[in-house]
Amino acid sequence: MSFRDKLLNNLENVNENCVRQQYPSKTDDEIEDILFQQYRQQINSHGKLKRMIDQSGRSESYRFIPQFHFELPKNTDGLAQKLREEARTLFLQKRSKELLDNNELKLLWSLLEKHHSPPLMGEEQYINYENYCKVATIAGDKFRRYLTASTFARLLVSSSYPGKISVMSLFNYAMRKVWLQQTRIGLSLYDYTGQGYLNESDLESYILELIPTFPQLEGLEKSFHSFYVCTTVRKFFFFLDPLRTGRIRIRDILTCSFLDDLLELRDEEIPKDAQEMNWFSAPSALSVYGHYLNLDKDHNGMLSKKELIGYGSGTLTPIFLDRVFAECLTYDGEMDYKTYLDFVLALENRSEPQSLHYLFRILDVEHKGYLTAFTLNYFFKGIQDEISAHRAEPVNFADVKDEIFDMVKPADPSRITLKDLINSGHGETVVSILIEFHKFWAYENREVMVTDSQTNEESHNL
């Protein structure tokens, strides 16, 4: 029955005398309007009640929809937590068995070689779609998830041979996919909540158990393992958790290049220069920790502002260091190794958005979310003090300010936001000339240095 029919039915059955006695001074039209409003409200209230009953699960139609959200077990419910953990372990083990092992990968390679489509392109083998489907059929169900039509189409886009794909590219794709899935399963074993995230302690456990599998770390003393783990984990969290939520997504770990750099330590031989460039290598970790110990003059395991001023070129301004200790986590006014690692990562990667986010927070003295001429002048005073100490020619702040705003080209010409700084592509330069005299001097004299370099090159050629 429609709303109109229900309303008319109620109006026909109503006792108008009762309503007239209640409203003796009302006209017939007014009485009709009162009745209309009453029954409209009654019908609407009935509809709301029905919806509430439906949402509470008492409706017949809702009995057939399965529950799709389950709350995590509480910390006090040990049995439920243990059950969830056991279920996740069994699920991950099942997924692990679905992956290709070494023997199956060798079988895949032999099948691809056997069914490649002549002629050869140099020494490289190619395969067409018909033979590709044959390989998928012969290999069996376990291989078909790696030999799909979409995989062939994606590899065909980058192929240099029309209608065929490289056998080597296909095999590398399969190996890479197996590796990613193995790594995801390995990381997921440490995701105790099953939410797709790892917190710091989860990732620390993962790294600690990886150390014995890395030939490149065999020489590390066990007493240094905790410092190595801290050094490694900080890089993941600095770049993948810039908002300091205390957790990072497993998906982000897999898609960034850091995991490749870390697992590179499984190689028996890595060139010395490659080790020095790899943050996760033993020489790099020992170097970072060694610099920390060298700065710690009183050997109390922490760094004061006076000790940190010796970092790098030793020309970070006291004003900047005051802000670092004001904004970063310290203990009785001193910095621990974990905070020091964030500081190092920010200064060594100044062009990266995460580093600019870290440094912008320190530069934003007024906590307004943007930098003004006042903010720039506040930090440039530290540079001017260094200029005076070196008895160099004074530099006018107005010129520096105009140059910075010209470089950044902010949306609002009176203020610079973090977004402006990142989008400009000059964030590293802007930050460096405000916080470090050595960098400012190099920037200020860049034209002279280029000229001298060209002159030296010409003299060498002569």
From TrEMBL:
Keyword tags: Calcium, Cytoplasm, Metal-binding, Nucleus, Repeat
InterPro entries to which the protein is assigned, alphabetical: EF-hand-dom_pair (IPR011992), EF-hand_13 (IPR041534), EF_Hand_1_Ca_BS (IPR018247), PPP2R3C (IPR039865)
One example GO MF annotation: metal ion binding
Gene3D superfamilies: 1.10.238.220, EF-hand (1.10.238.10)
Location in the cell: Cytoplasm; Nucleus
Keyword Repeat: yes
GO biological process, one term: regulation of dephosphorylation
Gene Ontology CC entries for this record: centrosome; cytoplasm; nucleus; spindle
PP2A regulatory subunit B'' EF-hand domain span: 192-268
Domain of life of the source: Eukaryota
The name this protein goes by in its record: Serine/threonine-protein phosphatase 2A regulatory subunit B'' subunit gamma
Organism of provenance: Aedes aegypti (Yellowfever mosquito)
Gene coding for it: 5576224
